[in-house]
Amino acid sequence: MKILILGATGGTGRLIIRDALEKGHSVVALVRSKARASELRGADIIEGDVCDEGILVRALNGCDAVISSLGTGITFQEVSLLTDATRALVTAMTHTGVRRLVCVSALGVGDSRGHGGFVFDRLFQPLLLSHAYKDKNRQEATIRDSSLDWVIVRPARLTNEPARGGVKAFTDLEGVNGGKIGRADVAQFVVEQLTTDTWLRRTPVILW
User: What global pTM score does this model have?
Assistant: First the structure.
């Protein structure tokens, strides 16, 4: 498959590119600056604004699917990058006929709120990540409201530990209170969703 990857220069995005290439996929990475993409070997690099529908249409040329691992991090101001980029992406994908979208979200978004563990739920999310998570909620809503073939993946707390395999994935969150998962395992799980319908139009939480 030929895949467009957004958020390619981030910690998880780089590993997604590596795993996709190892699995034999062709990769296009849309990045804000080619200078930051020098390590993305094997990917076709396109420079442009991820919120620009015209740029997205050009980047989608010949693609079969999209993986979005866009993120914003801690911010104390209103943010709308994920919302704006995803709205433009859904429109561009609809226009070009590309249907498969796999999006990396996070545990704590949507109906997974309150399952991040005591410290995360009571301190980090409301005090440090409130604006970022509002943006993620809007992003997820945009995807769910679309007619695309989507999978929204909600990883637990991300680490840079080596891949372990044996990822747990589920939507029934009874008894879930936090957890962690390595970016490498997230990357592998996300790429797998390109070719399976197991979690089609669902929002699995993944953790070790």
Answer: 0.96
Kindly write down the DSSP assignment for every residue of the chain, as one continuous string: -EEEEESTTSHHHHHHHHHHHHTT-EEEEEES-GGGGTT-TTSEEEES-TT-HHHHHHHTTT-SEEEE-----S-SS---HHHHHHHHHHHHHHHHT--EEEEE--TTSGGGTT-S-HHIIIIIIIIISHHHHHHHHHHHHHHHTSSSEEEEEEE-EEE-PPP----EEES--TT----EEEHHHHHHHHHHTTS--TTTT---EEE-
Beta bridge partners of 168: 207
Summarize pLDDT for 31-76 with one digit per residue, the tens. Answer: 999 888 988 999 999 999 999 999 999 999 999 999 999 998 888 8
Rounding to the nearest 10 degrees, give the CA dihedral for residues 23, 29, 35, 41.
Answer: 20
Nearest 5°: phi and psi at 26? -95, 135
Q: Domain 2-207 falls in which CATH fold?
A: Rossmann fold (3.40.50)
Q: In whole angstroms, what is the distance from residue 171 CA to residue 129 CA?
A: 23
